[in-house]
Each structure stands twice: as structure tokens, then as C-alpha cells.
């Protein structure tokens, strides 16, 4: 019979425990149990193991990180077992299903559901070697527990070692798990551990043990202070956990996301706008606007299909021409002719009505040839030719735009070439502008617009900000210079002998108000000899004695037949 190879998680814990014993045997100054407790506390309170660890010991930080990740996986696994037992599904509420936390929760939830299904179908609770070591432990615990709440949350080192021993039992040997008083959950409502001497009950994360020692009740993190909701959010207690809910609504045009953020509703994409068929819906922040699909030129009107058609002014306008003249409709306009014998097609009477003159079908606003064509007037008619930038397609019998950028790659523009109907235009990448020839690109001197708060150096296609002495470039925007607080630097305490005062771009040293003066180097404080400078207040019968930062007046009397030497 083959045995399942334990996952790498169990040996990592065994190595960690062995490392703790070795460090303890060597008399290390770092208390490893305290370090591991700090890691557990970080996982339980902050639910984050990426925060910086405060210990100065490299070994302690290693233990803190490993214990934090172990505790965090145990918390997530316990949540997954709760989901399997309480809602019989593995949908993670109020969370990102792609996060690492959701993966741990779903893994233990699925393994527990498999164990419950095996028990319901009357199958063996001995887990398959293919599901993995940790999943097998959850599978077996939930299978034995049956339809009740699973009593095992993997992650505890002792539980893993006991389970590893069970997996190594050979065929024909008695399984000690059958004699375990915690089999099937024992007397405990959630987690049970048989120490050999007694049965100890414990609860999942988010629960606390009741005085009866076997039952568990939900912890209200919102009241007990275990929540981390942000400002503007309210804490709502849930079974075994809590969630944060936004206090105020998002307002019209916005919707609340699962992360408690407000997201704009795209009324155009969702189809909840009220734009008419002749209008196009354009989404805006919090709302939308309707704009016409097509703007027709003067003399044209939009039909029901959105196309621009000519207005027959001769029919729509009452008496468009004076008496004795006939209205003749044209593309986009109309003309008036005297009531004389009509001219042939392509001609009309002159203003005097004396002769027929050619109708210039190509004169604006008429466009009889359509886009891409050049209208050429001829007597009594007109012809259409292709404009510059177009070529005539003999198959479609139309003028097709010439893509100059594709036909002459790299030869027209210095940087980027953009094709347009009948032509093209050149553009430049960021940091450059188009030269006067409209084709080549020249560097833009960004420093001329003073983008930096202090000094600016133009480079090819960009620019670089730098700061004067005593300042440093901001890591936030890269253009602002921030004052360096020399007094707050690690060496700040050694800059001045007495007191350091930060000023913009530099610092100043100061001395006590009395008894000292600043040395010529501007950093050290020198004692003032009040006795030499004569600024003391000793009487004539006293002697001035200089001390550091001050002076003393000493009074003494000479014996009989003596006098003070200063008086001689």
C-alpha cells in the first residue's frame, strides 16, 4: 500500500521547530516563542503578513513571518470549513474571489464538502492520496463529523504531526484515531483536541468559548473593537466575522461595488438611457447625454433613417419665386426662371430671360459626385474625377483613398504617420513637436514652462528635475523639491553641540541663552568667561570665579595684619 508524501508545509514547520530548539540550545538572546506569538498576533489582528517586522534580529523576523503565514492560513481554512458547514457552498461573501485569501478559504471549503459528500454516500473517510496532505486532513475531519460542523482547522503544528503519524500506519495495524475521544467532534461544538489526559475544546476564529467549556458563540467585533473599518464606513457584525459598509449612498448615476467604492453606471452600455433612435447615447460621469447622429447641411433634412435628403423648396416654401417666374429645385437650394420656353437639361435662362446658360452643377452647396470625387462642370452636364489622394477602383467604379503611410512607410514622417481621407498628417511622440516642415520632429524644451519647483535639465524627448543643496526631489510627483530636515537625520544629533534648528535648505545651531556663545564654526558652543569680559556682578569685596556656563562670586577676609593682594 502506497503512502501519501506529506506536503512541504509540514517539513517546514518541523525545520522551524528544530531551528528554535537549536537557537535555544545555543543561548540566543532572541526569545523565539515571543517572536512566533508576535507573528500569530499580526495575522489575527491585521490579517496581513506583508507589514514590516519590528524586531532587529534576523532570526526573529524569520520566525514572525513563518508563524504569521501559518496562522493566516489557519484562519482562512477555518473560514472555509465554516462556509462548508453553514451554507453548504464555497461562495466567499463580500470579497475578491481571485485573492490569495479566497483561494485558501475555497480550498479548505471544497475539501470539507468532499468529506461530507463521502460520509453521505457511505464511503470511507480515509482520504485519497491524490487530494494532498492538508486537504486530506480536512476531508477526514468533515467526513467523520458528518452533517455537523467540522471540528478541525489545519494549521496547528501539533495537529499536523498527529495527522502525519496517522497517515503512516501500515495495513493491519489498529488506527489510534478510532480511540480518539475527539472522534466525530467529541463533546465540543467546534474544535476538539485530545491531550491524552483530558479533552480540550476551542473555537474557530471569530468565536469565543462559553463558560460550559464546549459551546462557542460569535464575537461581535464591532463592539469588542476587533474591526478595521475605514472612516465613513459602518461595522456590521456577521457570523464568525464582520464586514464594513459605506455610510452614505453613491447618488444618482453611480452604484456601490463590493469594495465599498462608488462606480459610474454606463447608461449607454446597460441600455437604460432614453435617447431617441436619431440620437447617439454618450456616457458621462454620473449621467449621459444624447447627441444627434448626423448634422445635415443647409438645404437638406434628415429622413426617418437618419440620411440627409434634399429639401424641395419649390414645394415646401409658399411662393418662393416672384410672379412670372418658375421655381426650379436644385441640390440643396433652388432657382427661379422666367416663364419662357424651358431650356434643355443642364441649362437655364439667364437673369434677363433672354438666353439659356449652362447650369454649374458643381457649384456649392451641390455635391453631385459624392465624397472622394472632384466635380468638373461641362456645358449642359458635368463629370466626376478622383481628387488628389484618391485612385479610381475599376471594380467598384468608385474613388478609393490612398493610404500614403502604408505605401511609403518611414519616408513621409519623422515619427508617426496618420492616414486621412485623401491625405495624411504627421505627429510626434511625447516630448517632441512637429517642425515647420510638417514632417520632422524636434525636441520640446519642457524646462521653458518651468515644470520643476527648482532646477530643470532638458534631455532629448523629456526633462529631469533636480534640487539645490539642502533639498531633495519628492518621490510623489518627481518635480517638487522638499526641504531636507538635517536635524532629523540619523547624524542630526552630532551636527550641533547644543541645539539644531532646521531652516529651508539648511540648518542653524544655537547655544544656551546665557553663559555660552556660538563658536566660529557655527556648530559648537564656547563658554563665556564673565570674569575676563567684566560682565559679572561681583562686588569689590568679592572675587569672580569663572565656571562652565556662568561664574561665581567668592568673598573672603584677610587675617589681622594682612590685606588682599589685589589691593597692593
Automatic annotation (TrEMBL):
- The signal sequence is 1-27
| Single Gene Ontology MF annotation | peptidase activator activity
* One GO location term (cellular component): extracellular matrix
Where's the Anaphylatoxin-like domain?
35-68, 76-109, 111-143
Report the domain of life of the source organism: Eukaryota
- Cite the PROSITE patterns for this sequence: ANAPHYLATOXIN_1, ANAPHYLATOXIN_2, ASX_HYDROXYL, EGF_2, EGF_3, EGF_CA
Q: What is its main location?
A: secreted
The Gene Ontology biological process annotation of the record reads: extracellular matrix organization
Write out the entry's keywords from A to Z: Calcium, Disulfide bond, EGF-like domain, Extracellular matrix, Glycoprotein, Repeat, Secreted, Signal
Q: Kindly indicate whether the keyword Repeat belongs to this entry.
A: yes
What InterPro entries does the entry give?
A: Anaphylatoxin/fibulin, cEGF, EGF, EGF-like_Ca-bd_dom, EGF-type_Asp/Asn_hydroxyl_site, EGF_Ca-bd_CS, Fibulin-1, Growth_fac_rcpt_cys_sf
Q: Where in the cell is it found?
A: Secreted, Extracellular space, Extracellular matrix
The answer to whether keyword tRNA processing applies is no
Write down the SMART domains for this protein, in alphabetical order.
ANATO, EGF, EGF_CA
Positions of the EGF-like domain: 358-400, 401-442, 443-482, 483-526
Q: Which family does it belong to?
A: Belongs to the fibulin family.
Q: What is this protein called?
A: Fibulin-1
Q: Which organism is it from?
A: Physeter macrocephalus (Sperm whale)
The gene from which this protein is expressed is: FBLN1
Amino acid at each position: 500500500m502506497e503512502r501519501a508524501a506529506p506536503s512541504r508545509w509540514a517539513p517546514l514547520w518541523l525545520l522551524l521547530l528544530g531551528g528554535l530548539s537549536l537557537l535555544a540550545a545555543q543561548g540566543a538572546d532572541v526569545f523565539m516563542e515571543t517572536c512566533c506569538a508576535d507573528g500569530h498576533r499580526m495575522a489575527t489582528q491585521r490579517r496581513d503578513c506583508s507589514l514590516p517586522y519590528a524586531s532587529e534580529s534576523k532570526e526573529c523576523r524569520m520566525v514572525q513571518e513563518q508563524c504569521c503565514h501559518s496562522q493566516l492560513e489557519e484562519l482562512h481554512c477555518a473560514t472555509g470549513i465554516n462556509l462548508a458547514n453553514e451554507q453548504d457552498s464555497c461562495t466567499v461573501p463580500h470579497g475578491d474571489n481571485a485573492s490569495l485569501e479566497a483561494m485558501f478559504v475555497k480550498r479548505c471549503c471544497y475539501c470539507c464538502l468532499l468529506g461530507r459528500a463521502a460520509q453521505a454516500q457511505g464511503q470511507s473517510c480515509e482520504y485519497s492520496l491524490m487530494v494532498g496532505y492538508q486537504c486530506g486532513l480536512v476531508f477526514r475531519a468533515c467526513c467523520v463529523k458528518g452533517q455537523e460542523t467540522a471540528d478541525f482547522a489545519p494549521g496547528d503544528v501539533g495537529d499536523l504531526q498527529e495527522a502525519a503519524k496517522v497517515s503512516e500506519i501500515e495495513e493491519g495495524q489498529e488506527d489510534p484515531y478510532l480511540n480518539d475521544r475527539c472522534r466525530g467532534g467529541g463533546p465540543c461544538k467546534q474544535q476538539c483536541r485530545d491531550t491524552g489526559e483530558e479533552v480540550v475544546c476551542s473555537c474557530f476564529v471569530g468565536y469565543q468559548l462559553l463558560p460550559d467549556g464546549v459551546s462557542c458563540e460569535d464575537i461581535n467585533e464591532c463592539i469588542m473593537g476587533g474591526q478595521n473599518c475605514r472612516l465613513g464606513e459602518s461595522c456590521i457584525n456577521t457570523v464568525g466575522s464582520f464586514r464594513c459598509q459605506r455610510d452614505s449612498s453613491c447618488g444618482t448615476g453611480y452604484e456601490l461595488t463590493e469594495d465599498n467604492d462608488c462606480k459610474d453606471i454606463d447608461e449607454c452600455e446597460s441600455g437604460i438611457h432614453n435617447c431617441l433612435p436619431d440620437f447617439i447615447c454618450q456616457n458621462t460621469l454620473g449621467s449621459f447625454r444624447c447627441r444627434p447622429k448626423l448634422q445635415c447641411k443647409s438645404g437638406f433634412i434628415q429622413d426617418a433613417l437618419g440620411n440627409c435628403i434634399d429639401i424641395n423648396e419649390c414645394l415646401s416654401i409658399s411662393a418662393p419665386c416672384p410672379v412670372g417666374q418658375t421655381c426650379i429645385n436644385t441640390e440643396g437650394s433652388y432657382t427661379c426662371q422666367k416663364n419662357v420656353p424651358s431650356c434643355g437639361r443642364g441649362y437655364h435662362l439667364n437673369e434677363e430671360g433672354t438666353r439659356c446658360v449652362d447650369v454649374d452643377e458643381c457649384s456649392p452647396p451641390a455635391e453631385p459626385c459624392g465624397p472622394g470625387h472632384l466635380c468638373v462642370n461641362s456645358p449642359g452636364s458635368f463629370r466626376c474625377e478622383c481628387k488628389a489622394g484618391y485612385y479610381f477602383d475599376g471594380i467598384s467604379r468608385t474613388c478609393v483613398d490612398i493610404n500614403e503611410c502604408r505605401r511609403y512607410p518611414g519616408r513621409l514622417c519623422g515619427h508617426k504617420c496618420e492616414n486621412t481621407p485623401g491625405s495624411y498628417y504627421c505627429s510626434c511622440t511625447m516630448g517632441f513637436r512637429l517642425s515647420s516642415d510638417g514632417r520632422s520632429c524636434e525636441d520640446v524644451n519642457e524646462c521653458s514652462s518651468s515644470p520643476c519647483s527648482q532646477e530643470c535639465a532638458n534631455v532629448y524627448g523629456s526633462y529631469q528635475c533636480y534640487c539645490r543643496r539642502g533639498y531633495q526631489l519628492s518621490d510623489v510627483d518627481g518635480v517638487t523639491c522638499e526641504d531636507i530636515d538635517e536635524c532629523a537625520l540619523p547624524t542630526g544629533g552630532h551636527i550641533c553641540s547644543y541645539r539644531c534648528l532646521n531652516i529651508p535648505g539648511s540648518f542653524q545651531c544655537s547655544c544656551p541663552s546665557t553663559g555660552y556663545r556660538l563658536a566660529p564654526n557655527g556648530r559648537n558652543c564656547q563658554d563665556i568667561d564673565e570674569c575676563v569680559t567684566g560682565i559679572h556682578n561681583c562686588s569689590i569685596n568679592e572675587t569672580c570665579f569663572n565656571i562652565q556656563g556662568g561664574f561665581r562670586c567668592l568673598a573672603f577676609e584677610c587675617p589681622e595684619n594682612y590685606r588682599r593682594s589685589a589691593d597692593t
